[in-house]
Amino acid sequence: MYDERASTEIHTDASGYGIGAVLVQIQNNVEKVIAYASRTLTKAEKNYSTTERECLAIVWATNKFRPYIFGKHFTVVTDHHSLCWLMNLKDPSGRLARWALRLQEHDFDVKYKTGKKHSDADALSRNPVEEETETPDKFLAVTTSMNLAMEQKKDQDLAKLKLLSNSSKTKNSDSSTVSFAGRIFDPDGKLWLPVIPKHLRADILRHFHDAPTAGHLGFAKTYDRIRKRFYWPGMYRNVVRYVMHCRECQRRKSVPQRPPGRLVPIPPAIAPFHRIGIDLLGRFPKSAHGNKWIIVCTDYSTRYAITKSLADSRSRRNSEVLT
């Protein structure tokens, strides 16, 4: 377990294809390991000189263990004797100068240890952990015109639309849009828009709203992005409903309205019916007398309540009850 009061060391080493580091503390005169770390070198880093690779191991290790060592004095232990003078360079230049500048935020000493006694970090540098690869983004499966045409044949509504577009009546009609081979375009425009079947519309909405590259935009921007690429009847209504019911948006986005004001305490009434509260309940199913609302009047002093049914909720009707 890490102890802030114990002396801390970072053992580093580099090989031709990896770097390793060990965070160590001296607790009760016993050397205890706090953490291990290693990684492979990039193609460019493999071309570094031995001194540069050893210095890279120190820079990377101090950044890796920063939560443990920042603001605390520690010792860097290395088997490369040349690094002992790293912080004492008079005129540093190039890559080593930049690294020396980065290391100046830390308070540390450099200590040399022979390679035979430096086996912990040396073993890690010769068996580094591969860098984690990013999870690939998932995109819509229908990507070709052939696949889209096959999916369109499964939709009954689009099958009916295709029959209409092939009829002579549709060909001779003066319509603002023309449908052909599962695509719709504006005669004045240049962009053909594929018609999306019902069973693929949810995938489109997820891709343009929920995907990491979509950013959970509002319904206006989401709709604008979709309508430039696809078409289906009722698209705007579907986008609005989908965005309004998005769980992540409801959890993380603030409500686009003013915050409620502070509650003002109501002073106590000094006599019966000196102050009353009024509330309107409804709308209820229409009664035999044509009433759909109930007005409730409560006396703040005695808690005596009066109710009356109303045909509508207009203020004139409410005032008649009070008089």
UniProtKB/TrEMBL annotation:
InterPro entries associated with the record: DNA/RNA_pol_sf, Integrase_H2C2, Retrovirus_Pol_polyprotein, RNaseH_sf, RT_RNaseH
Pfam families attached to this UniProt entry: Integrase_H2C2, RT_RNaseH
UniProt keyword Protein biosynthesis, yes or no: no
EC numbers, comma separated: 2.7.7.49
Keywords, comma-separated and alphabetical: Endonuclease, Hydrolase, Nuclease, Nucleotidyltransferase, RNA-directed DNA polymerase, Transferase
The UniProt record lists the keyword Cell inner membrane: no
UniProt-listed SUPFAM superfamilies: DNA/RNA polymerases
Molecular function in Gene Ontology: endonuclease activity; hydrolase activity; nucleic acid binding; RNA-directed DNA polymerase activity
Domain Integrase zinc-binding stretches: 196-254
Annotated ranges, domain Reverse transcriptase RNase H-like: 5-105
Name of protein: RNA-directed DNA polymerase
Organism of this sequence: Trichonephila clavipes (Golden silk orbweaver)
Lineage: Eukaryota, Metazoa, Ecdysozoa, Arthropoda, Chelicerata
